[in-house]
Amino acid sequence: MGHLICGVDFGTSNTVVQVYDTDTQTVLPSNGSFQNSIESVIYFPHGEREQFYLGKEAILQYVESGMTGRFIKSIKSAMPEPALGQISVHGKRIKIETLVSHFLKHIKDLCETHYNQPISHVVLGRPSQYSPDSGKDKLAETRLVKAAKMAGFTHTRVVKEPIAAAIEYRRNIDNSKKVFVGDFGAGTSDFCVMAVNPSATTDVRFEDEVIGTSGLKMGGDDFDAAIMWDKLVPYFGYGAEYESFNKWLPIPVHIFRTICSWEKLSLLRRVDIQNSLKTFHHSTNEKEKIARLLTLINKNLGFAVIKAVESAKIRLSDHDAASIIYAEHNIDIDRTVKAEEMTGILETQVAKLEDRILAFMKSAKTSFEDIDVVFMTGGSSLVHPVRDLMIRHFGEDKIQVGDAFKSVAYGLAASAKDVF
């Protein structure tokens, strides 16, 4: 075994690694005892600033603690935001690149232990567009690279995630094709068009095959929020009214928009909002529903509820219906979501995807008929309205699906031959 290089896909929901061997010029198989992925969540127990847990252990510890302490997910979504350069953890400000470095160091340690050698080189994946603002986009990549160096990688390169997915696809074909790649993740949706030629001479680099890339900051997390809005906000009082000076007024809609993004739920624990919520509960015509809303907010149950929503969404990938089930305190949810409803529920999100794809194809000067293959990857590629969108424009016969969670990491590792 020769010099090893990591390909790391730091994703909104999962962080995945594959390893490239410079001697054999191949990506090493990731099977057996090697756990090459971890959920991108971190948990700091109550009062702790130095001790933390990652991945499934973070979720386990958070739940066992009664959902106290500081639990952080979707860190990738915060990376382009200047105002989120530091995250508050029990009174201490921690840089966002420090949080990211914990995941990259964990992955690095796993690889070094498994292969019994130090690894200093890494190819990092990034979305086609962290943000439409070029300054924010550059900031996010700078933070990612800095996090890798903090984790102990001394040599770093960055490759766009949809290009990496195309590289992974290339290994399974034996003739030239013009490929549209859709990488539909939890926080971003990314696209590229490449003229893939697996028989090209070794001096042709993958960058020479790229025709164009694009993307937008929207993905599975937005789908979860849309399902929660459609199915659950009435259960927590959306549409309820409260009496004020002999007038009946609707409870502000922003409260219900906020509970659909669980990471924003802490905003509703501000003193002024808490006082308003108590007033609503006291004078509402839906006391039971607002009581549930107060429980959701003050017992910090947002993460658990949105995980139940996500679980139902995942089951809908291969079932006609799935139930959102969650019971805790005075909350007892059992709501059915039908696959046929998803088109309507995700109408706004899919329309945004469609608009971006149409604009991208125009900018790439490529027609849908020009595309030989559509390679779909990422967890949200399994959502039926997303797949239906791609079929509508490209045709079902062109659709191919890669490993939803490992394709990008494989392509990142394989690109090491070119980028280093």
Question: How is the secondary structure organized here?
Answer:
Layout (H helix, E strand, L loop, with lengths): L3 E7 L3 E8 L4 E2 L9 E3 L2 E3 L8 E2 H10 L5 E3 L2 H4 L7 E4 L2 E4 H20 L5 E6 L7 H17 L4 E6 H10 L6 E8 L4 E8 L13 E7 L3 H12 L9 E4 L2 E4 L2 H7 L11 H13 L3 H12 L3 H14 L5 E8 L2 E8 L3 H4 L1 H17 L9 E5 L6 H11 L4 E3 L5 H8 L1 H4 L1
Parallel strand pairs: 1-10, 10-11, 12-19, 19-20
Antiparallel strand pairs: 1-2, 2-3, 2-4, 5-6, 5-7, 8-9, 12-13, 13-14, 15-16, 17-18
Helix pairs in contact: 3-4, 5-14, 6-10, 8-9
pLDDT < 50 stretches: none
- Determine the fraction of residues in helical runs and give it as a percent range: 25-40%
* Structural classification: alpha+beta
Question: What's the overall average pLDDT, rounded?
Answer: 92
Determine the CATH topology of the largest domain.
Nucleotidyltransferase, domain 5
Shape by Cα distribution: globular
Q: Helical region count?
A: 15
Radius of gyration equals 23 Å
The CATH superfamily label of the largest domain reads ATPase, nucleotide binding domain
CATH class of the largest domain: Alpha Beta
Report, as a whole number of angstroms, the end-to-end distance.
18 Å
CATH architecture label of the largest domain: 2-Layer Sandwich
Describe the largest sheet.
6 strands, mixed
Number of domains: 2
Total beta strands: 20
Q: Report the portion of residues in β strands.
A: 15-25%
